[in-house]
Amino acid sequence: MKIYYLANARLPTEKAHGYQICKMCAEFARAGATVILIAPDRARPGDGDIFSYYGLERNFTVKLLPLPAYPRLEGWLGPRWPYRLLNWHFLYKLACQTIEKDAVVYTRQPEIARLFGRRGWRSILEAHSLPIGQGKSFRRALQHIERFIVVTRTLGDQLQTLGVPAEKIIWAPDGVDLKIFAQPLNKKTARSDFGLPLDKIILGYTGSFRTMGEDKGIGDILAALAKLDAQYYFAAVGGNEADIKDYKIIAKNLGVSERTAFRARVNLQQLSRFQQACDILLMPFPDIRHYREHMSPLKMFEYMASGRPIIASDLPSIREILNESNCLLVKPNDPADLAEKIRLLATDKNLADRLAVRAQQDAKQYDWRKRAEKILKFIDKTS
């Protein structure tokens, strides 16, 4: 099978979606597919090499399409128009590409899936969200897409209400690299690596601090920390410079700055080591539509594989993977409940160990390779 993964995204990027896209390309290739990733050529971190940035095997082809620097016009045109121009130009460039008719076009963008589906290609959409207003044009677009991969069951239900038959949809939540995140490490050694205190109960968080400008729960963590005594310490890894600065100010205002550490993004191997330094891993997402219905966070699967107990928000998207047997669920937007659950895990070692062991066992079913094989089988079955 030949797959053209068409991604309207800056690659590589510090954000999780970039890793997810490139990791799936690598896993599709490992499963036997010939994979060509096509993305816009935009400003990229580091040396710009996707494979070294994400630590991936060089088993698929990358083609970057040059585009004008439309974002530089933001000061003249406002925040939206430069990116609309960028998107339209990328679609035009894609339409001019030579893609074999017997190849599969795979994408996370509905407009790309529609473009190629209308022109006769087998078009597969991996849906991570749906637009807020699903008008007639969006419903028509769905008719041209052959198959849908959804990361939450709610997304699948919503597609069915829009007229997509159930047999055209498969649920495939995100995954984890068990070779990286399921490796145990002495807690003392891990803390020394990150300069974390050896005598504290470390509450950990990994990943970007905000998504689409929305807080991902760090605000509630800091508010909960203010309700806990001095033995508790919070460390977060994965923020950008602006977010780190903002949350340091919030921590200072709450009087907990001496019990916090905020770090920038690290690579996956370092991220795994950081998780081993923690006593409890946190993801208290607020209750907003995206987190409630469409979220399949990479950190959730990485936390599960780590062997550390997890506290997570009680949201429908989270409950598709986590439950009372493998984590402690807390009320969203409730720092008091979060503080109470933290105390419970910190004082009940048997509970913490039981939840951590079960989560680590459950993580095995969410290996990236299994996800790729499941999706390829679904696509092949319908060819």
Structure report:
- With 383 residues, the protein is of the alpha/beta class.
- The protein has two domains: 2-175 and 367-381, 3-Layer(aba) Sandwich (Rossmann fold); 178-366, 3-Layer(aba) Sandwich (Rossmann fold), CATH 3.40.50.2000.
- The strands form three sheets. It has a seven-stranded parallel sheet, sandwiched between helices. The chain has a six-stranded parallel sheet with strand order 12-11-8-13-14-15, with helices on both faces. Strands 9-10 form a two-stranded antiparallel ribbon.
- 44% of the residues lie in helices and 18% in strands.
- The protein is built from 18 helices and 15 strands.
- Residues 22-178 form the Glycosyltransferase subfamily 4-like N-terminal domain.
Number of helices: 18
Tally of strands: 15
Tell me which CATH architecture of the largest domain applies here: 3-Layer(aba) Sandwich
Cross-sheet strand order for the largest sheet: 3-2-1-4-5-6-7
Low-pLDDT stretches: none
Helix content: 40-55%
The 3D shape can be described as: globular
Relative strand content: 15-25%
Estimated structural class: alpha/beta
Summarize the main sheet: 7 strands, parallel
Assigned CATH superfamily of the largest domain: Glycogen Phosphorylase B
Specify Rg, calculated over alpha carbons. 21 Å
Multimerization state: single chain
What value does the average pLDDT take? Answer: 93
Distance between the termini: 10 Å
The total domain count is 2
Q: What is the name of the CATH class of the largest domain? A: Alpha Beta
CATH topology of the largest domain: Rossmann fold
Domain Glycosyl transferase family: 187-361
Domain Glycosyltransferase subfamily 4-like N-terminal: 22-178
Pfam families: Glyco_transf_4, Glycos_transf_1
